[in-house]
Amino acid sequence: MKLFRSALLVSLVGLCAACASHSSKMIGKLQDKNPQFATSQCQNARQNAGVHDDVQNAKLWVGPSVLLLAGPVAIVPIFLSGVGLNTMDQLQANDIAKNCGGTALSQQGVAQSVAVDSALSLGLGVAVPVPTVQAAGAR
To answer: 83 with 91: CB under 8 angstroms?
Structure first.
């Protein structure tokens, strides 16, 4: 069972390792021929998209590492921080879309996207084999 959980974790992390942030995906969808693309507002909006890529990659390793070290008590703080970071990324992607001539999501669309990302993050956290403390006599 532990081997299966470890294999599942490695597979999921491998699949998500190449995932880009919503901000970077939005930049990839933009038409650089659009006149709004060259404006200073668009350039300012696009400037910090790389930060969200770095955060996304760090979340893939930090969350499971903290769970392994701290145990199940860390699930809630990791989950809540992931929700916050996902929300910031999605809002940055919407800002990029608005300022660069793309199509921004509605508030409902942002909420759905954050919910899906958070559920996947929680799923990855649950897939991590959390070490359990054994009682002294239970060997």
So the answer is: no
